[in-house]
Amino acid sequence: MKITTWNVNSIRTRLEHVTDWLGENPVDVLCVQETKVQDKQFPEAAFRDRNLQVEFFGQKSYNGVALISQEPLTAVARGFSAVLGDSVSEWDEQKRVISGMLGDVRVVNLYVPNGSAIASEKYEYKLGWLAVLKDYLAKLLEESPKLCVCGDFNIALENKDIYKPEKGGNHIMASEAEREALQEILGLGLRDSFRKFTDEGGHYSWWDYRAAGFQRNRGWRIDHLYLSDALYDDAADCTIDATPRGWEKPSDHTPVTVTF
DNA sequence: ATGGCGTTAGAGTAACGA
After folding, report:
1. CA at A213, C1' at B12: how many angstroms apart?
2. Are A62 and A38 in contact (CB under 8 A)?
3. Which of these CATH numbers, 3.60.20.10, 2.60.120.10, 3.60.10.10, 2.60.40.10, describes A2-259?
4. pLDDT tens digits along A16-53
5. Is the CB of A75 under 7 A from strand B?
C-alpha cells in the first residue's frame, strides 16, 4: 500500500498538479491539506472522471482536507467530534481532520495549525489542538491497530530537519512545547516512517515561497507519515518527491509517500 | 533585523500561511 501526504495550498489552483502527479504516481490514498474550498465547490468531477474516489471536509478560504483514493474508503470520519463526540465540536470549526479506512488500515489526514508566532493566541490554539489530537488518536488506535497518521504537522521534530538549525530552537514549528506535544502523541505508539530509512538531515518537504527558498534549498521537513507498530515493521520505503515543487506555480509543499 | 511570495475574498487591501 502507498499513502501520500501533500499540502497543496488550494486544491482548485493546484488541480492540474494533483491530477498530473497522481497520473504518474497512482498511490492508494493521497491525503491533501489546505484545500481552501467549501464542500459544495470542491472540484469533485476532476477526480471522479479519472475513476478516483474523493472525500473532503472543507470551509471557505482556509484549511480544508481531503482523501483521494483508487478504491472507496469506508468509515470516513470528518473532524475530531466524529470520533470523540460533541464535547470537542468547537475544535472542528476549522476543518483540519479527515480519516477513512482502506481494508483494515485507518488513514488519518491532518492539517495541524500553523501557530503563527510563539506565545500568540494561535500558538496556544495549536497546543490545545494537539492535546485533542492525542485523545483522538488514542481512541482510533484502540479500534484500529493498523494506523497511518499523516499530514502537514507544521512541526520539525529535530534540528536536522531544518535548513538553519541554529534558528530552530525558539522558532515557530520548532519550539520545545510544540515538539513535546508531538512527542507525547508519538508515545501512543507511532513512529516516523521517514526515519526508518535514513538518519541524514537536509531532507525537506516545505520551502518558503519567499527569498528563493526552494532554489537555495532552504527548507523544513514538516510533512510526516507516522505508522503504528503493526505497519512500521512492514514499511518498505518513505520518499519525498521534490519534483512538483519545481513546477510552474507550485504549492510550497511537496508530496511525501510511504510504502508498506 | 526585516521582508521577501502566494492564495482567498472581493474590489483595495487584509488575513493567513510557516
Report:
1. 29
2. no
3. 3.60.10.10
4. 999 999 999 999 999 999 999 999 999 999 999 999 99
5. no
